Amino acid sequence: MLVLGALLLPNTLPGVEPRSFTRIPAEAVLGAGVVLGLPRRPRVVAAVLYGLGLTALTAVNLLDMGFNEYLGRGFNAALDWDLLPDAQAYVEDTLGSGVATAAAVGAVVLVLLLAVVMVLATIRLSELLVRHRPRAARGALIAGTIWITCSALGLTLFGGPIASERAAGALRVHAQRTVESLRDEAAFAQEAKADSFGNTPPDQLLPDLRGKDMIFTFIESYGRSAIEDPIMAPGVDRTLDTSTKALAKAGFAARSGWLTSATYGGSSWLGHSTTMSGLWIDNQRRYRTVSAGDHLTLTKAFQKSGAWDTVGVMPGVQKGWPEEKWYGLDKLYDAYDLGYKGPKFSWSTMPDQYALEAFQRQVHGRKRDKPLMSFVILTSSHQPWAPIPKTVGWDELGDGSVFDAIQKAGNKASDIITDTTRSREEYGKAVQYSVTSLTQWLERYGTDDTVLVFLGDHQPIARVSGERASRDVPVSIVAKDPKVLDKVAGWNWTEGLKPDRDAPVWKMSSFRDRFLKAFGSTPRPSG
């Protein structure tokens, strides 16, 4: 049963149902034939290798389940090992270091135990087959004949083919995925060297934004599902409508559209770097390649022009972040630079409202010789969406201690993670909080020269956004100066903060060049 289960195990959680195991696996028939034809010592070696192969197959299928559930894609053996430490850090921040350590140790023990049990099972099966060689040979011949017949005729049972090659197919897919990833790495390195604005002189970069305070803000997991899903959308749409009216009262206008993100459910930095670089960065190796080079980012274009001071405000960064040079940031304010003394909210180190107020106090509100370009990454809408901060009076924020009682009264992450419906509900509330914090900050501190671009980095995890959800995220430009929005009139974006369903959808990687051209930059290719 263990061997057959491993051979027929699907790689998605919805696929794990009884009918998935009512198949005849070709790999079992072939394995029986090989074992019956070998002498004892080679037979034992073959059984051990077969058991280890099934262990690897099972581990990969389980990783596929996790990646499909959270990131909407399968596991990539060439790229995704680097994400496992991030997963452990997320569990530690969300459920505690004890749970994270137990999960890591448990995973290793489980794989080792599975390997031992699977090898013992395959050795035992091989001995049983040999002990009953005539009957086993007839059984293998009959099973093989049935498999060939069912395969040739395309016979099905419970909606699936009776003749299965699930294990071989899974290994083939992963092998192809690995080979394609290695080829992609070399091709992308060449692609990253070419840049349509790589040789643009400083005085020809963004001339139509000179004198403006420019702010690029990413809202964590702010995806299309937040605006269109029947559970999340009502509250989020009300927030967007209310915020649009409040901003209009303060003299701001907005235009909104859609961008298709390079990532899904996580790996936010891939969405950030894709938007800013104009390159499609959908895996960690691409990210490492481009961030180690000198490809012009949108933020760096402001720095290169010499007309702006450039800063990054990243409350989610808690360790050294060398990418600040690639992004072109004169100064980075991380989790330890913003003066927060309140509690963490699961993964999020501080509420967005506090991060924005600290940004105003330490950076945006100070007098300077040049206008400011700010790159702000908000984190309160990061999973597991428990506990969620609540908006307080802006004058009450202080050092963040005001959030102690709010954090203690909030939901426990462990209660939300295990409940899909509650996860969707709380996700919607978290997005409402982040949007409200950002738009209230703009009402309170924005000036005639403030220009805000804010967008989502990716959709929430597949368990929340739904099966086969799009990768689209909302993007908005907000400004008081009508000349700013006139520059993007040809984009045909929707008025207000909520893009229409049929508003234009662009790849996230196209935003950099469109933005640079819209505001007067002259293309001068390099590479």
Automatic annotation (TrEMBL):
Signal peptide: none annotated. It comes from the Bacteria. The chain crosses the membrane at residues 24-39, 44-63, 99-121, 141-163. Gene3D superfamilies: Alkaline Phosphatase, subunit A. InterPro entries: Alkaline_phosphatase_core_sf, Sulfatase_N. Keywords: Membrane, Transmembrane, Transmembrane helix. The keyword Transmembrane applies. Residues 291-460 form the Sulfatase N-terminal domain. This is Sulfatase N-terminal domain-containing protein. The lineage of its organism: Bacteria, Bacillati, Actinomycetota, Actinomycetes, Kitasatosporales.
